[in-house]
Design goal:
The complex is a heterodimer of chains A (about 110) and B (about 120). In chain A, β9 and β10 form a beta hairpin. Helix content of chain A is about 0%, strand content about 55%. In chain A, strands 2, 4, 5, 6, 9, 10 and 11 form a seven-stranded mixed beta sheet that branches. In chain A, strands 1-3-8-7 form a four-stranded antiparallel beta sheet, with no helix packed on it. By secondary structure, chain A is mainly β. Chain B is mainly β and about 120 residues long. Chain B contains no helices and twelve strands. In chain B, strands 2, 5, 6, 10, 11 and 12 form a six-stranded mixed beta sheet that branches. Chain B has a four-stranded antiparallel beta sheet with strand order 3-9-8-7, with no helix packed on it. A two-stranded antiparallel sheet of chain B has the order 1-4. In chain B, a hairpin with a 6-residue loop joins β5 (about 30-40) and β6 (about 45-50). Chain B is globular. Chain B starts with a strand and ends with a strand. Classes of the chains: A mainly beta (about 110), B mainly beta (about 120). The interface between A and B is medium-sized, with 29 and 24 residues.
Amino acid sequence: KAGVTQTPRYLIKTRGQQVTLSCSPISGHRSVSWYQQTPGQGLQFLFEYFSETQRNKGNFPGRFSGRQFSNSRSEMNVSTLELGDSALYLCASFPGRGENEQFFGPGTRLTVL
Amino acid sequence: AQKVTQAQTEISVVEKEDVTLDCVYETRDTTYYLFWYKQPPSGELVFLIRRNSFDEQNEISGRYSWNFQKSTSSFNFTITASQVVDSAVYFCALSEHGTSGSRLTFGEGTQLTVNP
């Protein structure tokens, strides 16, 4: 069974630009969560999508948004990039219900210059 | 609000030593889940274990063992006879039952270095 895939793996953007990251969950998994990892703030929950609906949301500004498609693939978008948005963005795949662990992808490393 | 604290920022040991990584959590929920993840330099978080709040049995998996104590709100992780390949950052995490385990609160992580 293929694992969680994230594209692109590395990205360099400049302040003010916007960026879209993609995550494909494990086949059959209906939930996708996004996390931001920075040296200063650690791992922080961004949001979770289940069956194309946002089910949970973390404490991030509205510049961070996401969506999920009918095939469970998810995208997150960050608009008007700031230097502080430089981070490793991790996507986690989860069946959606039950006591199952989340499986993480390799992450997308975003650098904002 | 829930919180996870990993007081040990960095630990350095010599191969074959035993090492324990501490994790203390706070939650108001009576039903919750605790996790440990390993993050090697590649960046991907690797799942190690999940525990629910009603199961206080200790668990052993090969060289890994976990000690869950609700009385002290701790979920510690021990590696026996450590190996160089165990070098990584280890995260303890907590999720509440209401979110079906889909929102994790992570600790700050412990960087473990195992020297040959």
